[in-house]
Design goal:
Layout (H helix, E strand, L loop, with lengths): L6 H17 L5 H8 L3 H7 L1
Length: 47
């Protein structure tokens, strides 16, 4: 059974989907971190 997404995970997933739909490629880790106001090196820890 898969656990439901947290609100933060949902926001990131929505951002990723919208970004890919608009640009046709995935954002960089820097772009994701910048969108959510977190440091790149800590980004994956928080998500």
């Amino acid at each position: 059974m898969v656990a439901p997404l947290t609100p933060t995970q949902r926001r990131v997933l929505d951002f990723l989907r919208e970004f890919v739909e608009r640009h046709r490629f995935a954002p960089t880790a820097r772009e994701v971190a910048g969108r959510f106001g977190i440091a790149v090196k800590n980004g994956f820890y928080y998500l």
